[in-house]
Design the sequence.
């Protein structure tokens, strides 16, 4: 089963309409990605920047929202590696209300691998590419 | 020319990589939408919910990011009505660094019209549909 | 020992100066308060509003920051009930870097008990007052 | 009259209780401070860090909230220089609902002047000290 990060919706994440302010989901997805790096890749996300000087800025994102989340809901965010390109990595996200079988949000982000010192697009170093590709294998969608 | 909301990137909007944290752009787009309602439709966005009991939750979003924004950049967010469906309204967004001819972010959000009391999808009331359709006409993309 | 909520500093919580944007700590404190309610009082914070129609808006806050937090730090936020007044409850907060003996932030918030339907200050209902007072007892600072 | 920054409360700034989530006010205060630097001191806040390598982290903050703000309210945040110490600068903030004579929030932040390259407390450079002291004079509270 794909990695899931368990998050709680917070008092301050709710908007004037009484549901989660949708830009917050993109934040939740990033939080889940940070957890995914530590738990599945064995790399603390902050070392990616601080030690390896690699950034992963988003160049394309897409999400479908079928049902809203409310305050008090527990949320599980699934993270997958969907594709490893020359300089790009695509992450897939699905957000479930805890206990639900059907996702309420399905999305993906295309990121590019960036040399943080020169702020230029690069191919991910071999050790990082292998970590991503291993995830593709594990999920049988290489 | 389409409506543009002038925003400033704030100290707290920058992430660990030194550029704007991308979920913030979805927030900027919503801020620009609130300004668009007041300036172009003549409806304060908060009255939509408070007075008319109508919500516009996002059901689909999509964005392409070609260049990052840094702290100190001034940003202009263009808002357009791209499509008025039966119960949906699609808003288009483009984000420019002030003075640039080429947008750095291009995106759109599909929203649905919601009866906030019953939390059910509805057709927008006639007065609101007309306001949206007038925007389509003005922009010659009906 | 007083309750502590373990939080992680997120990529998006860092500001242009490379440290946690200080308004985020007030958010962390609220997140820790929500955890405190569930873990120590046995009341999910969202039911306070949704079921009991009670709010706890802040009327006074004060914090001292002695050392900053960086991305990658794990943070523990301690929550205490410091005082139960007629209509007010004062919560104390201390933020530690995981493993540190000395807190980096020490603060407190005075909140008032609010009837959410009439938006008026009230005395907390007896069951809630008892839960707060039990915390005072436990911490030997009644 | 002291400098005021006009801000709008945004859809996403409202919490589950229907009022502005109070950590957002600390963000509003910082936004107003950024505007104050540009408008009154003639220094863009981002150049402070990017060009002059000076940071102003908060070491103490204090705020009193007497009435809440709702979505749709326009807010004016007044910024004053209250004190210039050896290495510290204290900024005073008051938040008004537009048109009100009485502030709804009154607070202040003590900041210290930091050399961003060595991350050490310093005396503000003479040009910056003079700008702050001129504000004290203008406000007759030196």
Sequence:
């Amino acid at each position: 089963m794909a990695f899931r990060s368990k998050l709680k919706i917070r008092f301050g994440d709710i908007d004037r309409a009484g549901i989660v302010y949708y830009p917050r989901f993109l934040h939740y997805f990033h939080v889940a990605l940070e957890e995914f790096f530590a738990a599945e890749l064995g790399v603390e996300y902050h070392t990616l920047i601080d030690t390896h000087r690699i950034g992963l800025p988003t160049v394309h994102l897409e999400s479908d929202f079928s049902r809203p989340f409310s305050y008090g809901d527990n949320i599980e965010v699934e993270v997958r590696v969907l594709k490893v390109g020359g300089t790009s990595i695509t992450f897939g996200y699905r957000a479930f209300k805890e206990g639900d079988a059907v996702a309420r949000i399905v999305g993906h982000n295309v990121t590019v691998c960036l040399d943080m010192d020169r702020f230029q697009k690069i191919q991910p170093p071999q050790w990082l590419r292998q970590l991503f590709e291993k995830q593709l294998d594990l999920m049988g969608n290489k």
About this structure: Chain C has a mean pLDDT of 93. The longest helix of chain C spans residues 23-41. Strands of chain C lie at 3-8, 54-55, 58-65, 74-84, 88-97, 105-112, 114-115, 120-121. The interface with chain B takes residues 11-12, 14-18, 21, 23-24, 71 of chain C (CB under 8 Å).
